[in-house]
């Protein structure tokens, strides 16, 4: 793979349109970022769970604030990579015209990396998958292909993000978000389909990156950008190099910022957070600065900022150092896993404590269980109603509740199920609970 081909301003749905000239206020990749910022799916992230329940007396991160922070870190990683490349080769801009845009590409991809995640975090994904694995959705197995069934039994937010960005939803722009090819490729961490994913020891196949419905779309993107075919999986590809930066930005944020939220919620003491973050800060004068701050929340914020800065610099250096391996598809670790051994071991300690004290905290577990029940119940109601040929009056009323944009003219079972999943997976936590209450008769809707 080569950077000149990998970084393309070609835009999905407008492949034959000329790019804007240099006098325009925004580059093509800044346009990607802006389109995402102003979009409805992005705004809905403000009411989707990141880790802790929403809303609460103490403000914690939701999917939207997390995505904004990941985009900020991603931009720094991209800019640092370009700066180091420019330092090594002052003429790099002539050889790779869009290389200076890497920061904008990565930040746009970061902004959309969680766009396909359903309500209630990973619990929502699990609920959708289990509906088909062991719930009432099992009845549809013989009505779809093996690859389609793999999609349904392993619902994946990463693949759903690509669908949201490229699928021609009913009544909407048939070109989707019309993002650039490079931004689209940079969000696909696992460039294979469901039946080829979930392979242990294979980073690019840890999960999967596109549904069968978007298989041809991703192939178009991959071929245009010159992504390498996976030698062990002819139906899949190796990662676009910028995926490593997007992944690193996400890893940095959730590993560090979950500690900050845990402190706000009094799950972790200040002393515990300091012990976890101080080894990552690398600032000899930091103790003096911390002692000058009497507010513990401010101390945590300072530790968080220093730790993130250390990890950004480390990941950028790893990316530069292993650049040739990455371009050849021979680098099979995340950037975080390739950092200095002491940092890697310390991050494992943070992960272990996060699992034990944060992700299994009673409030977190409760929202996961409640979310699981809500999502499963919604699927039990909407999927049979939408698929029935002879609909009852109640079925028709349920179908009428699905917004027109999610309806499909296709008659096959997979397309119809996918249409309902588009509707349900796009819900916010608040909307899903509200709809669940109304459908179950727990709360009666009133006219306003």
TrEMBL record:
The keyword Cell membrane appears for this protein: no
The family database entries (SMART domains) matched by this protein are listed as: HDc
Q: Which UniProt keywords apply?
A: Hydrolase
Tell me which InterPro entries the record gives. dGTP_triP_hydro_central_sf (IPR023293), dGTP_triphosphohydrolase_C (IPR027432), dGTPase (IPR006261), dGTPase-like (IPR050135), HD/PDEase_dom (IPR003607), HD_domain (IPR006674), PHydrolase_assoc_dom (IPR026875)
HD/PDEase domain: residues covered: 59-264
Which Pfam families does the entry link to?
Answer: HD (PF01966), HD_assoc (PF13286)
The entry's protein name is: Deoxyguanosinetriphosphate triphosphohydrolase
Please tell me the species this chain comes from: Sphingobacterium thermophilum
């Amino acid at each position: 793979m080569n950077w000149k081909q990998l970084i393309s301003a070609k835009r999905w749905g407008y492949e034959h349109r000329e790019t804007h000239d240099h006098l325009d206020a925004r580059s093509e990749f800044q346009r990607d970022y802006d389109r995402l910022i102003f979009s409805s799916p992005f705004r809905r992230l403000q009411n989707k769970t990141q880790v802790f329940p929403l809303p609460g007396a103490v403000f914690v991160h939701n999917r939207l604030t997390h995505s904004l922070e990941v985009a900020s870190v991603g931009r720094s990683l991209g800019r640092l990579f370009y700066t180091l490349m420019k330092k090594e080769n002052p003429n790099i801009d002539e050889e790779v015209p869009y290389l200076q845009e890497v920061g904008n590409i990565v930040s746009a991809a970061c902004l959309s990396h969680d766009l396909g995640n359903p309500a209630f975090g990973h619990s929502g994904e699990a609920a959708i998958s289990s509906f088909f694995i062991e719930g009432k959705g099992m009845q549809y197995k013989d009505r779809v292909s093996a690859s389609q069934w793999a999609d349904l039994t392993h619902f994946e937010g990463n693949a759903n993000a690509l669908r949201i960005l490229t699928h021609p939803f009913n009544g909407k722009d048939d070109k989707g978000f019309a993002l650039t090819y490079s931004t689209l490729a940079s969000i696909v961490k696992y460039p294979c389909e469901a039946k080829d994913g979930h392979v242990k020891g294979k980073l690019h196949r840890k999960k999967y990156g596109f549904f069968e419905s978007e298989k041809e779309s991703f192939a178009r993107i991959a071929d245009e950008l010159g992504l390498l075919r996976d030698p062990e999986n002819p139906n899949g590809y190796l990662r676009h190099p910028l995926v490593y930066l997007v992944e690193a930005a996400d890893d940095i944020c959730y590993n560090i910022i979950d500690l900050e939220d845990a402190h706000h919620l009094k799950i972790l003491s200040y002393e515990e957070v300091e012990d976890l973050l101080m080894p990552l800060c690398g600032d000899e004068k930091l103790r003096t600065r911390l002692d000058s701050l009497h507010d513990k929340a401010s101390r945590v914020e300072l530790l968080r900022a220093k730790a993130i800065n250390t990890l950004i610099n480390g990941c950028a250096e790893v990316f530069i150092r292993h650049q040739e391996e990455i371009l050849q598809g021979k680098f099979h670790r995340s950037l975080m896993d390739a950092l200095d051994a002491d940092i890697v071991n310390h991050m494992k300690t943070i992960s272990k404590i996060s699992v034990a004290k944060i992700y299994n905290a009673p409030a977190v577990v409760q929202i996961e269980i409640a979310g699981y029940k809500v999502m499963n119940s919604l699927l039990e109601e909407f999927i049979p109603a939408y698929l029935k040929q002879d609909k009852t009056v109640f079925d028709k009323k349920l179908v009428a509740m699905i917004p027109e944009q999610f309806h499909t003219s296709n008659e096959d079972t997979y397309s119809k199920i996918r249409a309902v999943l588009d509707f349900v997976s796009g819900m916010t936590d608040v909307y899903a609970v509200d709809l669940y209450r109304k459908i179950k008769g727990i709360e009666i809707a009133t006219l306003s």
